[in-house]
Amino acid sequence: MLPVTTNSITKPEDVIICEKQEEHFCGRHALRALSQRLDLFSDEYLFDIAENIAATEQICRSGQPVQVTDYYYKYTGDYDIQVLQLALQNTLNVHLVRIDKLDITGCPIRNLILSNIEHIQAFLIQQDYHYYCLRSFRSTKDYFFKIDSKYSMYHEPIPRGRLFEYLAELLNSNSTIFVIMEHTVQNLNEQITIDTIEKALWPLPDAPADFELLLGRNQLEI
Questions:
Q1: Which of 49, 69, 92 is at the close of a domain?
Q2: Can you give the residue range of the structural domain that contains 60?
Q3: 127-131 contacts at long range (C-beta below 8 A, 24 or more positions apart)
């Protein structure tokens, strides 16, 4: 792993990868923002996944017709969340875990995640028909950055200390929140434990932004 650049301060917008919004292709934009890779998740690849999902669903429905447009509109975007989920799983071996409430009750895996929020690397957010992500980097672990193709020239810094407040605001606005986790083939509740949760919650490969100081601490204060 490369050392963090400690002698220089970099604007987040100068190093964090974020495509500018194109039509309704925010699903592709969000996947590339999560991975910090522009060479992954082409529209052709995502369309193939949508076709495979539709074909599988048709088999499950005993041959009843299923439209691929249920999962993806080829010329304008609008990917279904299932397409993004499979793309992340197949390409980066990561899984989406939905967080629909912030209280520590009920679902064991959600409880474990929320009890270890200091280890979370990234979230995928679905707001109406728009996708974007919240991403943290090794050099600036005390902050998340909102990476949104609609605002490609500004990445809002969110202190990890007010993350619960920020997520609560998203849930109150009917947004859907997914945590990015390492994918496990077997039962998620059985595979992820207190001993493995830190690694599971930081599954994405290092990117150039992980090795840059993204503004000084005093400049990031909100």
A1: 92
A2: 24-92
A3: 127/170, 127/173, 127/174, 127/175, 127/176, 128/174, 129/24, 129/78, 130/26, 131/26, 131/27, 131/29, 131/30, 131/79, 131/84
Query: What pLDDT, on a 0 to 100 scale, did the predictor assign at position 2?
Result: 44
Q: What are phi and psi of 125, to 5 degrees?
A: -115, 130
| Among the listed residues 112, 101, 99, the one whose alpha carbon sits nearest the alpha carbon of residue 178 | 99
CATH number (domain holding residue 119) = 3.90.70.40
Is 219 or 124 the better-scoring residue by pLDDT?
124
**pTM of the entire structure?**
0.88
| Token pair recorded at residue 77 | 């975007």
d(CA 21, CA 68): 23
| Two structure tokens written together for 155 | 């990445």
Strand runs labelled E in the chain = 5-10, 94-99, 122-127, 130-135, 143-147, 157-159, 176-182, 212-214
**Helices 26-35 & 43-60, crossing angle to 10 degrees?**
110
What is the pLDDT averaged over residues 52-78?
69
As beta bridge partners, residue 146 has 134
CA nearest 43: which of 15, 14, 19, 67?
19
